[in-house]
């Protein structure tokens, strides 16, 4: 049986870590594409030369030719500029939309049957644009944002409570911007509501609420916090790990329930937009969307986030992107 073929479009920071994780986890044969001459070839050679230590037999191919995408089962797209300090994800819209257009045309041409995971920002707009240009069915085009945002939320909760992050279930829904919606009410430690544990810790409901607000705000701004420190680009280790979790669920048909930037066709009262929601990821891509009950406050936050996505998509249309 042949190994899965995973194409990575964009051989920069995230693309490089993706290639290394694919090799170390032996997920499949990877092709790393970039427009910069020799660059993806250099990265792949570097990673491949660790095979003697990491003990993998999968192949890694760096390329500047889209033809090498042929036969890809999964395509992960990171092509595009990252943020610099002071920039919002939306500031990348025009530049990255032009890049995404050419990427989508080539993926359509050379990997028409692939499942596509997009990471490039502004995420919700880039996924929308890719699907529009490629015409791929919606279940095969979706974005990585929620897995990372949720991992950030879970990590901050674990630090605050002094417990293992392995036992934390925390989910962030909505768009991948400042309006994202960390679901406080559903956050739990092995089933115990996080708010209950915070109230016990502080013996004061108001203080517990204040601490949770800080965790939520840090989660929403977590990407910017990293950008501010790095100064030359945006987060890349954690986005790569997050996309790998999605990839594993697809290639092993695990049907993990993950927050995915998925196409909504009436779910959550939204029709025709890509928004972060809990979805079942399997060998067919997005196989099901779970609609969870939101209370009035959560619904209002979700509506606000959906409106931000709608504005971004409208901006793209207005600019003729
Ligand atoms: N086709 C393919 N690759 C391209 C194209 C293109 N048309 N234009 C640019 N690239 C490549 C660049 O050459 C670069 O190597 O995309 C790569 C992007 O890598 P980085 O600049 O290192 O950015 P990275 O940190 O990997 O982030 C990529 O993901 O999280 C988002 O906001 C982030 O949009 C950014 C993307």
Map the helices and strands.
Blueprint: E1 5-9, H1 13-24, E2 29-33, H2 39-48, H3 51-54, E3 60-63, E4 74-77, H4 93-110, E5 115-118, H5 123-134, E6 141-143, H6 146-161, E7 168-169, E8 172-173, E9 181-182, E10 188-189, E11 192-193, H7 194-202, H8 205-220, H9 222-230, H10 237-251, E12 256-265, E13 271-282, E14 285-289, H11 296-318
Parallel strand pairs: 1-2, 1-4, 2-3, 4-5, 5-6
Antiparallel strand pairs: 7-10, 8-9, 10-11, 12-13, 13-14
Helix pairs in contact: 1-2, 1-10, 4-5, 6-8, 7-8
Adenosine-5-diphosphoribose binds at residues 9-15, 34-36, 78-83, 92, 96, 99, 102-103, 119-121, 233-234, 236, 239.
The CATH superfamily of the largest domain is known as: Lactate dehydrogenase/glycoside hydrolase, family 4, C-terminal
The percent range for helix content is: 40-55%
Overall 3D shape: globular
Our estimate of the beta-strand percent is 15-25%
- Quickly count the helices: 11
The hetero molecules present are: adenosine-5-diphosphoribose
How far apart are the first and last residues' alpha carbons, in Å? 41 Å
Order of helices and strands: EHEHHEEHEHEHEEEEEHHHHEEEH
CATH topology of the largest domain: L-2-Hydroxyisocaproate Dehydrogenase, Chain A, domain 2
Radius of gyration: 19 Å
Count of the separate structural domains: 2
How does the helix and strand content classify structurally? alpha/beta
Largest sheet, strands/sense/barrel:
6 strands, parallel
Oligomer: single chain
Q: Return the CATH class of the largest domain.
A: Alpha Beta
């Amino acid at each position: 049986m042949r190994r899965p073929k995973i194409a990575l479009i964009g051989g920069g920071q995230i693309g490089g870590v993706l290639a290394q994780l694919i090799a170390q986890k032996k997920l499949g044969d990877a092709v790393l594409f970039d427009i910069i001459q020799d660059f993806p070839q250099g990265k792949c050679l570097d990673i491949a030369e660790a095979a003697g230590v990491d003990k993998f037999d999968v192949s890694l191919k760096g390329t500047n030719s889209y033809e090498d995408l042929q036969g890809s089962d999964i395509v992960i797209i990171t092509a595009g500029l990252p943020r610099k300090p002071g920039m919002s994800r939306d500031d990348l819209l025009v530049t990255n939309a032009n890049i995404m257009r050419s990427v989508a045309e080539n993926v359509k041409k050379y990997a028409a049957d692939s499942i596509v995971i997009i990471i490039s920002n502004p995420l919700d707009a880039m996924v929308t644009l890719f699907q529009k240009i490629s015409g791929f069915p919606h279940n095969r085009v979706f974005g990585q944002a929620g897995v990372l945002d949720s991992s950030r939320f879970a990590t901050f909760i674990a630090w605050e409570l002094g417990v293992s992050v392995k036992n934390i279930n925390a989910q962030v829904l909505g768009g991948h911007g400042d309006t994202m919606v960390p679901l406080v009410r559903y956050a739990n430690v092995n089933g115990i509501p996080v708010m209950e544990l915070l109230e016990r810790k502080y013996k004061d409901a108001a203080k517990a609420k204040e601490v949770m607000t800080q965790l939520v705000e840090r989660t929403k701004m977590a990407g910017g916090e990293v950008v501010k420190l790095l100064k030359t680009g945006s987060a890349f280790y954690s986005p790569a790990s997050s996309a790998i979790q999605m990839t594993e669920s697809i290639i092993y048909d695990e049907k993990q329930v993950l927050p995915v930037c998925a196409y909504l066709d009436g779910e959550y009262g939204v029709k025709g937009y890509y928004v972060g929601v809990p979805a079942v990821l399997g060998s067919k891509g997005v196989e099901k969307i779970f609609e969870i009950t939101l209370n009035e406050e959560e619904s209002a936050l979700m509506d606000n986030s959906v409106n931000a996505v709608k504005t971004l998509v409208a901006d793209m249309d207005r600019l003729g992107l």
